[in-house]
Design goal:
The protein is of the alpha/beta class and 248 residues long. The protein has a single domain (5-247), classed as Alpha/Beta hydrolase fold, catalytic domain (Rossmann fold, 3-Layer(aba) Sandwich), CATH 3.40.50. The protein has helices at residues 30-37, 62-76, 88-99, 120-133, 139-146, 156-164, 167-178, 206-209, 212-215, 231-234, 236-247; strands spanning 5-8, 15-19, 41-45, 81-86, 104-110, 193-198, 220-224. A seven-stranded mixed beta sheet has the order 1-3-2-4-5-6-7, with helices on both faces. Bound molecules: ligand LWBT4IAB. One of its GO terms (cellular component) is membrane.
Length: 248
């Protein structure tokens, strides 16, 4: 699987991978990239079916999405990296922490869905809607979950990104979420994990993220106040220092 990625920062610096939310691509990391690139070789990638990555017909699985990231490290000839992921990218991070522990130093997982399979119908229905009516049919609702009404910045770039996402790729990743339960392996995670949740996240409610902090050995939890799901975009002033402090 050929994943699209954009590299920023010194080629000699330690590598940090950035994994995006469902429907998003590497552009969503604009508020983080230059800050992280002062210390790291930043590799912002697109999940399969998203952005510039290949978009084979679905359904996909979390094993597919996680395996793609390990393959990307091989392609880059990078033995070990750190990983920052939000939303779908956070679920992929939980998979990597459990299934490829030797390839990663540290994880920062932002609003990660750990057991979306608990409500499979939600994802199956959304996949069907997007296959039938396209991502434009879910864009307004998505923006409503991702940002609070008082977030006044221009959301056109985010809207455009969602509209650019291939319908089949979005739907196939919904199907991956419908079969993903990463809870059973949490206690096996050995890498240092920073968990970030947002108090008003309707996509991945904080009640589903807070318990992970006691189930992942040594995990550290931060709760961002007055924030919705896409907290990296709405609150970079809070999130970026947390990432820098955790990634070292
Ligand atoms: O609500 C969304 O569209 C974002 C999302 C992706 C995975 C998840 O649980 O929420």
């Amino acid at each position: 699987m050929r994943l699209n990625y954009v590299e920023t920062g010194s080629a000699d610096a330690p590598v940090v991978l950035l994994g995006s939310s469902l429907g998003a691509d590497q552009r969503m990391w604009a508020p983080q990239v230059d800050v992280l690139a002062q210390r790291f070789r930043v590799v912002a990638f697109d999940h399969r079916g998203h952005g510039g990555s290949e978009a084979p017909d679905g359904p996909y699985t979390i094993d597919d999405l996680g395996g793609d990231v390990v393959e990307l490290l091989d392609t880059l000839e990078v033995e070990q990296a750190s990983y920052v992921g939000i939303s779908l990218g956070g679920a992929v991070g939980l998979w990597l922490a459990q299934n490829a522990p030797d390839r990663f130093h540290r994880f920062a997982l932002i609003c990660p869905p750990s057991n979306p399979a608990a409500d499979p119908q939600l994802w199956i229905d959304r996949a069907a809607q997007v296959r039938a009516e396209g991502t434009q049919s879910i864009t307004d609702a998505t923006l409503g979950r991702w940002f609070l009404p008082d977030f006044k910045e221009d959301l056109d770039p985010i809207r455009e990104m969602l509209l650019d996402c291939p319908d089949e790729g979005y739907a196939a990743c919904c199907e991956a979420l419908s079969t993903t339960n990463l809870l059973p392996g949490l206690s096996t995670i050995t890498a240092p994990v920073l968990l970030i949740t947002a108090d008003s996240d309707k996509s991945v409610p904080p009640e589903t993220v807070v318990p992970l902090a006691s189930q992942i050995p040594g995990a550290h939890l931060e709760i961002i106040e007055n924030a919705a799901h896409l907290v990296t975009y709405s609150h970079p002033d809070i999130v970026n220092p947390l990432l820098l402090a955790h990634l070292g």
